[in-house]
Specification:
By secondary structure, the protein is mainly α. Helix content is about 65%, strand content about 0%. It has a single domain (about 10-90), classed as 434 Repressor (Amino-terminal Domain), CATH 1.10.260. The longest helix has 26 residues, at about 25-50.
Length: about 100
């Protein structure tokens, strides 16, 4: 039995779900995606450093619930707090 290969158009799917490029709905979806991506990077970095949320919070002068909210993408840290978090984990940020 012969089957047809169906080509899946990811761009079309994204347009249908989030709106076309440049629309407010697409910009909002992209913003949320970046926030979740950055939250995951911070979560992975903390775990890789062997620190608990409580330990990281103590090092930056915050509470554990704040770290939890950041790692779940519910709170976006200010740039200064982001740098403090990164530094507390023994990492650095490079801008290009």
């Amino acid at each position: 039995m012969k089957t047809k290969n169906k080509i899946y158009n990811v761009s079309e799917e994204l347009n249908q779900v989030f709106g076309a490029h440049g629309t407010e709905s697409r910009k909002e979806a992209e913003r949320q995606a970046w926030e979740e991506y950055n939250a995951q990077i911070l979560l992975d970095a903390r775990k890789q450093s062997g620190m608990t949320q409580s330990e990281l919070a103590e090092k930056i002068g915050a509470d554990k619930s704040y770290i939890s909210r950041v790692e779940r993408g519910l709170t976006v840290p200010s740039i200064s707090t982001f740098y403090r978090m990164v530094s507390a984990m023994g990492l650095s940020v490079e801008l290009r």
